[in-house]
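ok so i was messing around last nite and threw this chain in just to see what happens. nothing serious, just curious
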Amino acid sequence: MLISGKHRRPKSSTIARGFAAAGAGGAVIALPLLGATGAHAAVQAAPAAHSAAAPAAPVAKKQAETRTYSVVAGDYLAKIAADNKVDGGWEKLYQDNREVIGGNPSLILPGMKLTLGGSAAATGTTQAAPAPSKAPVAPKPAAPAAAQSSSSGYVSPVPGKHTTNYRASGANWSSGSHTGIDFPVATGTSVKVITSGTVVTAGWGGAYGNEVVVKHADGHYSQYGHLSALSVSVGQTVSTGQQIGLSGATGNVTGPHLHFEVRTGPAYGSDIDPVAFLASHGISV
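result:
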């Protein structure tokens, strides 16, 4: 019985003999010649090696398209996606790195390793990751929960009233007392700048976590701490009520909230009473 895919062995003998004359004396030596089947087998072996090497180029190309990015202080997904020209924007970046980031796309931390170019491209699969929830990303507060505003050109940084008072004492603060006020808002709440100014700090602030500090025209500074994401960068001009970040629980905290300060200088230790300052501009917190 013949085996499928194999050549049939010819009926004639596989060994043919030829003769070659050697020297002037006419001596004859019988030399065996390869049969047709042996020659054919040798020719057929060569293409196998060529076909095995062919896929190497596409694999190398796929690997080259995948890059790794290490998150630094002040990063947020939209910024990373724009700076690195990620196809599909922050949504695709989040899908490819959801296992690293977690359930909240607004909460990324320095040191996280993110894949640029897509985990699907690296593994050769086209299966898409679950679509991210849109709710935590740059949320827009409903009208009743909107932050206060006044005709003086000031707004409250987030909706609602503050809890921990200015200068409250305790071991939770390195200075021995609270240098600002806290607003108990959930992670992902939009944080607004209280009035127009210029961003002088936007990044990691140690115990403050991700923070933004803005210098205002009257010489005062406002500070916003423990943010889960930043929406501005140093040197940027911001207008009253503009979003500068999203609230969170980064840094030295026991839960999500916004830490807010008013200062006479850009650095820690120059704080003044933020409640009285806002009240002088028509904002009650």
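not much to say yet. The first strand starts at residue 16 and ends at 22.
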